[in-house]
Design a protein that fits this description.
The complex is a heterotrimer of chains A (333), B (289) and C (315). Chain A has 333 residues and is α/β, with parallel strands linked by helices. Chain A is built from 13 helices and twelve strands. In chain A, the strands form two sheets. Chain A has an eight-stranded mixed β-sheet with strand order 6-7-8-3-9-10-12-11, sandwiched between helices. In chain A, strands 2-1-4-5 form a four-stranded antiparallel β-sheet, with helices on one face. Chain A is globular, with a radius of gyration of 21 Å. In chain C, strands 1-2 form a two-stranded antiparallel ribbon. In chain C, a hairpin with a 4-residue loop joins β1 and β2. The chains are: A alpha/beta (333), B mainly alpha (289), C mainly alpha (315).
């Protein structure tokens, strides 16, 4: 199966106070047509930047290198026109905060049809009719009235459904969903995720799903890549990652979830603070917080290699699986 | 304990002043110009090369020379000396406008924030009404009532500037009022007056400083306009706006020196105060761009 | 925009006007000095003559009666008699209104076109052009009308002679020609101000997350700028430009004075200098009314441009 989206040793640097700082180090990832891949990590791990790199939505001055291909087309080589076509037809992005990401002074209808009427040359009436239908598909009742309303008249959950509808209206082959449910309250989160999941599967659209929530990713994705400080540290099937986590960071993430331990047991927070990509030390990025850290971890960067049917970037993965690795006290930063 | 609290408040404003040093080159230049203007206003009589009222009928509309650096006016008076002497009335007026407006504005703001309810509502409505009077119109009205001079326009302009201070300070004071430490002090039996003056007011100081420094340039400009209209300072006192007005008829006769030099002085002063004011307020409020 | 919001604004406008008119009346009612004495001047008048004059001019009415009489007459266009100019206030004001309105409108057009244009240009074109505009407008903001007036007069009166530097002219074309320099002097610092606000507003919107959304959807940059950035910046821009145009009503006083234009502003200054309270009252009332009406229109326009404002205000 050939990949729809292909990231090959992608490296992104952003200018911060005059100096270029790496945000993503050599990231390789593939997404097949119709496949959903979760990108999981703490804030600052580079997952949002990865999605924005695919869209070529990085701030000006950003430096991006490596391979970035969609259906075989080199995205880094696209001219302005090609880039617009790509964004308008192939990929849609769903942002975290719909309240900020939908223009507040224009109507829902305007928002939904603007791409169809400007880029695709559809007639406004026809586009509005399709938009109304799409609103119903994402579970919005009273769709014709909603089209005439402004964003401030809709709840956060409804607005995120509008964003999903807008993404689907473009009939893309890939959806980039950047924490689509994080800004919503808990009950709406599930509804919105269910609708996104269902609609995506029905239309066979591939998805890059960005979240800090490993369980949520496991529920809606086929495959999961765990990111830390601008690296992918582990990648594997969503169904098995949970039970067979091999990288110490993934294990720590699982252990740190509120519902992982038995009742009454204290939460096991990961010691130290998450590093940003530019702070990553010479060796393994997680070395400063890893309970299994050895001397070799501090000096050599572990490559992402095949292990146990998945990919993991840890030189001691085998020892850890056997339970042979001595758990040392974590060296705080 | 209140001394400590006051100390904290003062410390906060001193830090603010301490940071003025790193304002950026443009603001520093503006600060230099402002400092020079203030020195001229203070020590003008010592610096001025001539008596600003000494007429010289044989030497009217003289061009620049070593004796009269900027030339002479229609009665042969030295323009430079008149500009130097004019600094005091030109700068003291705006200083009073800003001082009065800040005092009134912060008083109203504190009252509105402290009492809330109908007091707040009445003050807010009154400020709205005051907004309906453009400063210049209020100043002209004051002159119509009390006659020309510096006092009536200064008070009128101060009143018209008050709502700008009061509105911003009120919302800041309301925010500050809601902070838990105010209620704590209140429960501990600290008097309302002490809380207002020892706690709320010091915390509003940076904002007041920012607003005052921005308002000064506008006050200077408005008051000079009143003088230009002939309703402010009266001759033979020299004042920049008045000098522009008095020098205007001579322009058509080909002697623009007095009007232009006085106009340029106003321009430079206003720009310097504006730039410095913006710089200070950026610093104090921590805003960029 | 709900009719409730519009009605609320109009009611607030009426209330403000009523209170403002009362303030204007009371202030000048309480003014020190007796207009009759200054009217008669040095001549020694008998008390009965003074009383008669006071009665004729309703100067002996109690405060509220006087106010009610003054306001009702004013609403009918009758502002009473000028004691100084010895003419009806209406007769003095009438012919001058057109000149002042034309000057204000001329300056307003200059401000809106140039100010907003420069601001948008500076916001969208980073680099040298932006720096030039920012530095230029910072200096220009410090150039008050009367300073610009004498600079323009010095430039055009002697050296170039393209524009007249005195008077308002006859007929429309000639008037526009005569009012060009006054309008530039009046508009100058406001153009700078509006352009800086416009630049800031457009910059702010360019940073908006919804702009990122629009770009991510493959919309052409020109469309994004026009339909999103500029459309959203319009609210704050309209607000500030509107307030600026309202401010011209007071600023016209200086421009008229500097260029010897016989408009309402010149008359106001003359009347104030000579303590002609009836004229000052009338012109102050008209200017405050115009100022408040424009402000209300700006409020309504802002709410129309940004539906969130109307909702917030009603809620």
């Amino acid at each position: 199966m050939s990949a729809l989206l292909e990231l090959e040793r992608l490296r992104v640097e952003l200018p911060v106070e005059g100096a270029m700082r790496p945000v993503i180090h050599e990231l390789s990832l593939e997404i097949a047509p119709g496949e959903a891949v979760g990108l999981v990590g703490e804030s600052g791990s580079g997952k949002s930047t990865t999605a924005r790199s695919v869209m070529r939505l990085l701030p000006s001055g950003a430096d991006i290198s490596g391979g970035l291909r969609f259906d075989g087309v080199d995205l880094l080589g696209l001219d302005r026109r090609g880039l617009r076509e790509f964004r308008a037809r192939e990929v849609s992005m769903i942002f975290q905060d719909p309240r900020a990401h939908i223009n507040p002074v224009r109507t829902i209808g305007d928002f939904l049809v603007e791409v169809l009427t400007t880029v695709r040359g559809e007639r406004r009436e026809a586009a509005l009719a399709r938009a109304e239908e799409m609103l119903r598909d994402v579970g919005i009742t009273d769709a014709s009235r909603r089209l005439r309303q402004h964003p401030h008249e809709l709840s956060g959950g409804l607005l995120q459904r509008v964003m999903i509808a807008a993404a689907l209206l473009a009939e893309p082959r890939l959806i980039l969903a950047d924490e689509p449910s994080t800004a919503l309250d808990v009950t709406t989160q599930e509804e919105v995720m269910a609708i996104l999941d269902e609609q995506r599967r029905e239309r066979n659209v591939a998805m890059m799903f960005i979240t800090h929530d490993l369980d949520l990713a496991a529920a809606v994705c086929d495959r999961i890549a765990v990111m830390y400080a601008g690296f992918i540290v582990e990648e594997g099937a969503a169904s098995t990652l949970h039970a067979e986590a091999r990288h110490p960071y993934t294990r720590a993430l699982i252990a740190a979830r509120p519902d992982s331990g038995a009742r009454g047991e204290p939460l096991r927070a990961i010691p130290g603070r998450p590093l940003s990509a530019f702070e990553a030390p010479e060796g393994c990025a997680f070395a400063t917080r890893c309970p299994h850290v050895g001397d070799v971890c501090r000096t050599t960067r572990p490559p992402l290699r095949e292990f146990d049917g998945g990919l993991v970037a840890c030189v001691r993965a085998a020892e850890i699986r056997e339970g042979a690795a001595p758990a040392q006290a974590a060296n705080g930063v | 304990m209140s001394a400590l609290q006051v100390g904290l408040g003062v410390g906060r404003s001193r830090r603010v002043v301490g940071r003025l040093a790193d304002l950026g080159p443009v603001t520093v230049v503006a600060a230099g110009v402002v400092a020079m203007l203030i020195l001229v206003a203070l020590f003008g009589p010592l610096i001025a090369p001539h008596d600003p009222t000494a007429v010289d009928p044989l030497n009217v509309y003289a061009g620049s020379s070593s004796t009269h650096l900027l030339g002479t006016d229609d009665t042969g008076r030295d323009i430079l000396s008149r500009l130097i002497y004019g600094a005091r009335p030109s700068l003291v007026g705006p200083a009073f406008i800003v001082a009065i407006a800040v005092t009134l504005g912060s008083g109203l703001a504190l009252a509105a924030a402290w009492f809330g309810g109908w007091v707040d509502a009445v003050i807010s409505r009154a400020l709205d009404i005051l907004f309906a009077f453009p400063g210049l119109i209020l100043a002209i009205g004051a002159v119509a009532m009390f006659g020309p001079g510096l006092v009536a326009p200064v008070i009128a302009l101060a009143i018209s500037y008050t709502p700008y201070f009061a509105r911003v300070l009120r919302s800041a004071a309301v925010r500050e009022r809601r902070l838990p430490y105010v209620d704590t002090a209140w429960v501990q039996g600290v008097s309302a007056r002490k809380i207002c003056f020892a706690h709320l007011l010091p915390n509003l100081l940076p904002l007041m400083l920012a607003q005052a420094s921005v308002a000064f340039g506008y006050a200077l400009l408005d008051l000079a306009a009143v003088s230009f209209l002939g309703l402010g300072v009266q001759p033979p006192t020299s004042e920049w706006g008045l000098m522009v007005a008095n020098g205007q008829p001579a322009i058509v006769a080909g002697h623009p020196q007095q009007a232009l030099y006085a106009g340029m002085t106003v321009l430079v002063a206003v720009v310097a105060f504006n730039v410095l004011g913006e710089g200070i307020s950026r610093r104090v409020l921590g805003k960029t761009s | 925009m709900s009719s409730r919001f519009v009605l609320g604004r109009v009611a607030a406008l009426a209330a403000t006007l009523l209170v403002a008119s009362f303030v204007i009346y009371v202030a000048l009612y309480l003014a020190p000095g007796d207009p009759v004495t200054s009217l008669i001047g040095g001549t020694h008048a008998s008390p009965s003559l003074v009383a008669q004059i006071r009665h004729e001019h309703h100067l002996d009415d109690p405060l509220f009666v006087g106010y009610a009489r003054w306001l009702t007459s004013a609403l009918h266009g009758d502002f009473g008699q000028s004691l100084v100019f010895r003419d009806g206030v209406g007769q003095l004001i009438g012919p001058r209104v057109g000149t002042t309105l034309l000057l204000v409108a001329y300056a307003a057009v200059l401000i809106l076109v140039t100010g907003i244009g420069l601001g948008i240009l500076a916001a969208l074109r980073a680099g040298r052009l932006e720096t030039t505009i920012v530095v230029g407008t910072t200096v220009a903001m410090g150039a008050p009308t009367f300073v610009m007036a004498i600079i323009l007069i010095a430039l055009f009166a002697n050296n170039l002679g393209w524009f007249p530097v005195f008077g308002a002219g006859e007929g429309f074309g000639d008037r526009i020609w005569h009012l060009t320099l006054p309008a530039i002097a009046l508009a100058f610092s406001y153009v700078a101000y509006v352009s800086q606000v416009t630049r800031a507003a457009v910059r702010e919107e360019l940073r908006g997350e919804y702009v990122e959304t629009a770009r991510s959807r493959g919309l052409p940059e020109r469309f994004v700028v026009r339909r999103h950035v500029l459309r959203n910046a319009m609210g704050p821009i309209a607000n500030v430009s509107g307030l600026t145009v309202a401010g011209l009503i007071a600023g016209t006083v200086v421009a008229e004075r500097a260029f010897g234009i016989n408009g309402l502003g010149s008359l106001l200054v003359d009347a104030a200098a000579r303590k002609d309270l009836a004229v000052v009252q009338a012109i102050a009332l008209m200017m405050v009314a115009a100022f408040v009406v424009i402000n209300t229109l700006v409020d309504l326009l802002s709410a129309a441009l940004d539906p969130r404002l109307a909702q917030k205000a009603v809620a």
